[in-house]
Structure formats: structure tokens, C-alpha cells
Amino acid sequence: MVKPLPFEEPVIRLREKIEELKGITDDAHVDMSGEIEQLEDRLARLEQDVYGNMEPWDRVQVARHPERPTTLDYVQYLFEDFIELHGDRNYGDDAAIVGGIAGFDGKPVTVIGHQRGKDTKENIRRNFGMPHPEGYRKALRLMEQAEKFGRPIICFIDTKGAYPGKAAEERGQSEAIARNLVGMAGLKVPIVSIVIGEGGSGGALGLGVANRIYMLENSTYSVISPEGAASILWKDAALAKQAAEAMKITAGDLKEMGIIDGVIPEVMGGAHRHAEQQADEIRETLKNGLAELSAMEAGALVEDRYGKFRGIGVYSE
């Protein structure tokens, strides 16, 4: 059963009432179809009201939902013949970033994404989706391989941030991310990145220097978590809800500011409700994005990417 979030309580209670009435109908052979139909109509209106008017903090909670689909979940629905490749050819393999080659819409592509776990054991193995330097070096190795063979690159962003621990710093965390930023900026193949959960800080940007950046409707993309921002600004992490509103970290806000190129609608209640259906929404966006970019020459792709990021933050008095 999918764990409900606090703001979903009215919806959950009404769903439970409908199921209770259906149970009475089946067990006691009492026809309550009229009452059930009325409640189902009311449920549809309530869902639209609750999920159609979510606040930024509500979307943060959905983005962090433990059952939210991960990179590997989408890989199985979107791609054919995925072959995972491992290692950075320097230190080791980082399970917090997965990548490999696959088929998409009949053409070869390189797929790379952050990967968190679904339970405690897997989260520990994947370091809760927070990559070490070798993860970013693996990602860049696969990107350079993709450029060599002319394959488009598809990245899935889903991390609270790069791992800030001692071992990561000793192995060159900031240098590894910086090298990814420089490397991605100059790649002569199409790059599409999709934020599927949390997109946190430089850890997210290490897979985010793309020609096209899309976000799932309930994902977030920011330089710091709301809790971290609240701690810095107001010395109180409990004010995270207010920070989330002030930071403009939702897909709608970022699209309005021109930081991302499009918002991918989510299924009612969030992507964790129906991963395969959500993958269908992503598939159409990927097809359109890659079709547009594939028509561009190598030099034009680099210029397009350069212009995109140069344009962020520009203002006029």
C-alpha cells in the first residue's frame, strides 16, 4: 500500500469510506451503488482540489516519497535492451549513479541517472542517492563514450545532493562535479535531463548541463534543501515550509523563470501512484525533445547549450 502524505488525509479517508461501502455491498448483499457513485463523484472533485492546488512544501513531500519511481524504474518502462556499465576507470563503481546504453524509439542512447534505494538496505548500498566523486567520473566517462559513438544522452536527476563526507572530499568531490560541468558543456551530441524527484545543489547540476531540462510536476530543483535554507536564513530548520515557498523550487516556478524547458504532468496523486503511466508521459516529452535536437548539427548543439545557461539570471533594469 502506498503511504499517504499529510495533505492527502481527506482524500484517503473518503477512499476508505468508499471501500467500506463496497465491502458492505459485497458481504451483506445490500445495494449501495447510488451512495457509492455519489461518493466517487465527490472523491474526483476532492482529488482535483487537493492535488490541483498543492503548495510548494506539499510538492517537496511528494518528491521525497519513498515509493517515488527511481531511474531504474523508468529505465524498465522507457528503454529496450538496457546494459548497465560500471566504474570510473580510476577508483571504483558508485551505486548512487547508474548508467549504460539502451534503445529508445528504435535508436541507441546513453542513459545516466542518480539512483536511490527503496528500502534501508538498498539505500545504504546506494548511499541514499548521494554520489561520491567516482559516480560523477563514471557519468562523464559514459557521456564521452556517447559522444564518440554519436549517441544522444538522457539523464535522470534525483538526489538530495552530492555526498559531503570526508572520503568524498578526499577523492575530489568538487573537482569531479566541476569537470562534469565543463565536459557536458562541450559535448557534441544532444543532452536531455529530467528531474524526476529532488534535484539538489551541485550534485544535481553534475547531470544537468543539458540542451533541454524537464521536470516532473511534483519534483524540485534548488541550490539547497528547504531545511538547509531555513537553517541559514532564520536559524530554524522547522521553517522549511516557508523556505520552500520563498525559494521558488517547484517546476512551475522554474519554468516561469526560464531555468527549465518544460513541465511533465504527473498522474493524479503523484508519480508513485502509477509508475508505468508516468513513464508514458515522460516518453512523449523525450521523443519531442530528441527529435528537435537531433536535427541540429554538432556545433549548433554546443551553442544551444551555451546560450541556454548564459541566459539564466539575465535581467534588465
Automatic annotation (TrEMBL):
Enzyme Commission number(s) from the entry: 2.1.3.15
Domain CoA carboxyltransferase C-terminal residue range list: 38-292
Keywords: ATP-binding, Cytoplasm, Fatty acid biosynthesis, Fatty acid metabolism, Ligase, Lipid biosynthesis, Lipid metabolism, Nucleotide-binding, Transferase
Assembly notes: Acetyl-CoA carboxylase is a heterohexamer composed of biotin carboxyl carrier protein (AccB), biotin carboxylase (AccC) and two subunits each of ACCase subunit alpha (AccA) and ACCase subunit beta (AccD).
Primary residence: cytoplasm
Reaction it catalyzes: N(6)-carboxybiotinyl-L-lysyl-[protein] + acetyl-CoA = N(6)-biotinyl-L-lysyl-[protein] + malonyl-CoA
HAMAP family, alphabetized: AcetylCoA_CT_alpha (MF_00823)
Family note: Belongs to the AccA family.
Subcellular location: Cytoplasm
Protein name as catalogued: Acetyl-coenzyme A carboxylase carboxyl transferase subunit alpha
SUPFAM superfamilies: ClpP/crotonase (SSF52096)
GO molecular function annotations of the record: acetyl-CoA carboxylase activity; transferase activity
Pathway: Lipid metabolism; malonyl-CoA biosynthesis; malonyl-CoA from acetyl-CoA: step 1/1
Superkingdom of source: Bacteria
Protein role: Component of the acetyl coenzyme A carboxylase (ACC) complex. First, biotin carboxylase catalyzes the carboxylation of biotin on its carrier protein (BCCP) and then the CO(2) group is transferred by the carboxyltransferase to acetyl-CoA to form malonyl-CoA.
Species annotation: Bhargavaea ullalensis
Highest classification ranks of the organism: Bacteria, Bacillati, Bacillota, Bacilli, Bacillales
Cross-referenced NCBIfam families: accA, AccA_sub, PRK05724.1
